[in-house]
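Anyone opening a protein record will find just a pair of labelled lines. The record below illustrates this layout.
***
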Amino acid sequence: MYFKPFMFFLVIINTNLFAQEVVVVKDSGFGDIDLVIKDSGFGDIDVVFKDSGFSDFTVGITDSKSRADFIIKKTGFGDRSVRVKNSGFGDIEIILKESGFSDVDIVFKNSGMVNYLVYSDEEYITKYEIIAALLNVIKKYADFED
């Protein structure tokens, strides 16, 4: 009698705890969103990657696909696709700053507990790809509305 509601509750909890988002990061072609990432100038959101200190959230890289919150792919299908550009027009423009005041501060950690884990089949992940994968999280912390 109580078994079915209990199983439903477990399924809901497990779905929320282990939800992953697969993001296809593109250099060309069409994407669900065009993201322009610049090193200077004006943009919608300023982002700073830090090694330590205060941050809005922390991020780390994992070699385990099953542990990742975000999976970066270069080709194929995903939950969403993001085309990353260095110039021109886009749906959103992010300024990647080295230091100073920003809308969102991200601490990149090599070990320990983090808020978000990112996985990629590629050997090296760029900051641009991390921003593309975490774009919805960044927009949330910057209180940015499309």
